[in-house]
Write a structure and sequence with these properties.
Blueprint lengths: L63 E8 L8 E9 L2 E6 L1 H7 L5 E4 L4 E4 L1 E6 L9 H10 L2 H17 L2 E6 L8 H10 L7 E4 L4 E2 L20 E2 L3 H13 L4 E5 L1 E5 L11 E4 L3 H13 L3 E6 L2 H10 L3 E4 L5 H10 L2 E3 L2 H11 L3 H18 L20 H8 L4 H15 L17 E4 L13 E6 L2 E5 L5
Parallel strand pairs: 1-4, 1-5, 6-7, 7-8, 9-10, 11-14, 14-15, 15-16
Antiparallel strand pairs: 1-2, 2-3, 5-17, 12-13, 17-18, 18-19
Bound molecules: zinc ion (ZN).
Length: about 475
């Protein structure tokens, strides 16, 4: 979440970057170069991703019968008590009373009894930056791009990925590498191949902004500085650049729709929050159209009214941040089924350090959140972790959502079933139901009574493999 260098204009000029299953032969790991779905026209295509799998090279994990005191499955309105989950070859085979499931359990099934713990689907964070380590100020951001090699940043990213998994996040959509090129694809591959532990990653590689509209800026023109995004101008160049990102492994395409956020009445602003739009309509539409043609969806960083309006006109699938959402924009998003990733915590975290318009943006987003809930906008959990240090638990956003009026169950669903829907992965992720991948986490207490329980995840299973279990085995 880089911020721009101080600009000469009186306008507030902060730029938020963001800152297997069954006995069938194990499926091949889904490579990042999986061909897009066949399409008989150049229109936007359905973008169902290929099924996820455990890496084929590794043997299937042993079957597990997981006993828990309470189960929040992601879809039911209420939890169920004293449940067991039978996991076979990385997928959920059955849910119910332990005695009944034991009869179906294959020989060699390991029983893990979590006592009174609450199990829930693995959490999903739909907006992260594993290659960023916090950037409250422009100097923080620039230092990472100028003083750390991509190799060093990738090493740090492997730690961030592991942190996410241990915090209970079994899947993340990582929304651009902030100058680290395609290193997110490498981190994703290392996780898929079992080289390092980490969540399932859906990556967007480099993101787009036009010339001069994203850090690094403000250095001598004699110096060739690194860029925080892929710079491209003009519809044709942007189409080519989208193709290039997809070629090298992008699951998603991201573009920065706006920058320089300012309040009314400055510069004639007539909305809650205004912004400068980065791309022309022709350019933004070219990004979205080309991504959709290739079977990829598009995330738009958009904070002010103008940027959100431009992103929606271009056909973006998700709005990131969205602090300046008003009734009209929310209605358009609801109508178009566009998701909102509010990333509230990062705003709170950086507001003080950044000053200027940022504290006001936190207030505006709180009001937008209340309106969005009333109007039934699809709110997918996204934190912008990496925009703040990975030492902060990315589950803290859940507490803020509840404080802003969301029920604990709805907040959990935002980080499970809704986020899985955003990822187009409901066939595999987001709920504890038979057939889904066994991505399951647990906490000692009841998160419906105290949502902060989710900041203390005690058990993490991904694809049937246990990565964390703080409960002592008897
Ligand atoms: Zn971000």
């Amino acid at each position: 979440m880089p911020i721009a260098r101080p600009a000469v204009l009186a306008v507030l000029t902060l730029v938020a970057g963001c800152a297997r299953p069954s006995a069938a032969p194990a499926l091949q790991p889904v490579p990042y170069d999986t061909p897009p779905p066949a399409s008989d026209s150049s229109a936007a295509v359905a973008t169902r991703s290929a099924p996820l799998s455990s890496a084929a090279a590794r043997p299937a994990p042993p079957p597990v019968l997981l006993k828990v005191g309470r189960l929040i499955d992601g879809v039911a309105a209420a939890p169920k008590d004293n449940q067991a989950i039978l996991v076979v070859e990385g997928r959920i085979r059955g849910i119910g009373l332990a005695a009944a499931l034991e009869k179906d359990a294959p020989s060699g099934t390991k029983v893990i009894d979590l006592g009174g713990a609450t199990a829930l689907p693995g959490l999903i964070d739909a907006h992260t930056h594993v290659l960023l380590q916090g950037d409250i100020t422009a100097a923080d951001y620039d230092a990472q791009l100028l003083k750390e090699s991509i190799a060093y940043r990738a090493i740090r990213a492997t730690v961030a990925a592991q942190t996410a998994l241990m915090n209970g996040f079994t899947a993340i959509r990582d929304l651009e590498t902030e100058g680290a090129m395609y290193a997110d694809v490498d981190v994703k591959l290392a996780i898929e191949r079992g080289v390092i532990p980490g969540p399932r990653m859906f990556v967007s590689t480099r993101a787009f902004a036009p010339t001069g509209m994203y850090p690094l800026n403000g250095y001598s023109w004699e110096l060739k500085m690194p860029e925080g995004v892929q710079i491209a101008d003009g519809p044709d160049a942007l189409r080519k650049a989208v193709r290039e990102q997809v070629k090298y492994g992008a699951d998603w395409i991201k573009f920065y729709a706006d920058r320089r956020y300012y309040l009314p009445p400055e510069r004639g602003c007539k909305h809650l929050l205004c912004s400068w739009v980065n791309f022309t309509d022709e350019e933004a539409k070219a990004i979205v159209d080309e991504a959709h043609r290739l079977g990829k969806r598009v995330a738009a960083h958009a904070i002010g009214w103008d940027g959100i309006d431009a992103a929606l006109r271009a056909g973006a699938d998700t709005i990131e941040h969205g602090d300046g959402l008003d009734d009209g924009l929310i209605d358009r998003m609801v109508q178009k089924k566009v998701y909102w990733c509010p990333t509230i915590y990062v705003g709170v975290y950086v507001a003080e350090g950044r000053g200027g318009v940022w504290p006001k943006m936190v207030e505006l987003e709180r009001e937008a959140f209340k309106k969005a809930m009333k109007k039934g906008l699809l709110i997918a959990y996204g934190t912008d972790a990496g925009g703040y240090a990975w030492t902060e638990n990315q589950a803290k956003e859940l507490g803020i959502m509840v404080r802003y009026g969301m029920s604990p169950m709805a907040a959990i669903q935002s980080a499970t079933v809704v986020a899985a829907q955003l990822l187009d992965q409901r066939h595999d992720l987001g709920s504890i139901e038979p057939g889904r991948l066994a991505d399951i986490v647990a906490v000692a207490g009841d998160p419906l009574k105290d949502i902060s329980e989710l900041e203390r995840v005690t058990f993490v299973m991904k694809g049937g493999v246990v990565y964390k279990n703080e409960k002592k085995e008897k």
